[in-house]
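Quick one, T. Sequence first:
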Amino acid sequence: MIRIFKVGFIFIMSLVIFSCNKSEDTVNAYVVPFAEQYPVDNAAIETFLKSHSITPVNNPGFSDDQDVTFTSVTAGDASSIWGSDPLNPKPSLLSIPVTSNGVDYKVYYISLRQGTNENPTRVDSAFVSYKGRLLNETVFDQAENPVWFPLDNVIQGWKEILPKFKTGDPGVINPLDGTVSYSNFGAGVMFLPSGLGYYNGGVGSIPSYSPLIFSFKLKGLNYVDHDRDHIDSRYEDANGNGIFTDDDTDGDGRPDYLDIDDDADGIPTKTEIRISNGVFYDFANIPLCTDGKKKHLSATCH
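Structure tokens:
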């Protein structure tokens, strides 16, 4: 199964080993600039949206609930995902702006079901069923049974879209066959330009510079405490912009969610928020210092 995780240690080492045998021409192979590739990807995605309709399965309690199929239609057909107006998509086709690698992307997505429980953040772990397709509808990866993904370690498109959805009800185990059914979960489809996917690093059956389609079902989430400071990482977004890598209270180069001493006062965060042995303040109840900051974020009090 092709993981949605970013390329890890084994892949990096394989590149190092392989590069030793590459010719200089291969090593210096041209990489298309992101700003040059994005218009190509966007045009291809919009062509797909204008020439395909989508049909979701509404089958609550069963594994195929919110599966989707695509059907080719004539460009401009009102039944297409885009709709009949060549310049403006119909309201059911949503989009968000994403700036990455100096490019202002527009990421299209469809909300099949919003979900009823909680939204994950980019630093939570999400329990997801999914199917990945190329624009020619070739399926390159899928997981009918949900898989855990740490959202701080997935391709950027997933970081941007999955937090827009909520989880549903807890899974119910069928005592007869042990299967687990989920209901009211968030489900959707994202259409990713290659710059928010694997770009020039083709993976498995995914060619380089491939726009991707992911249909997904968000069935659960776990909150993660990356630095083990007894504050869930979801709470360490000090500026509230949904991005956790730009929150560095003490300016030491480590974002707060990875920093065991957020204010660099020499006292670990978990010590500052400890009430007694083994008992810690809930995040909302961490005392404030005179400067109005929570005590683990201010070196003025301990």
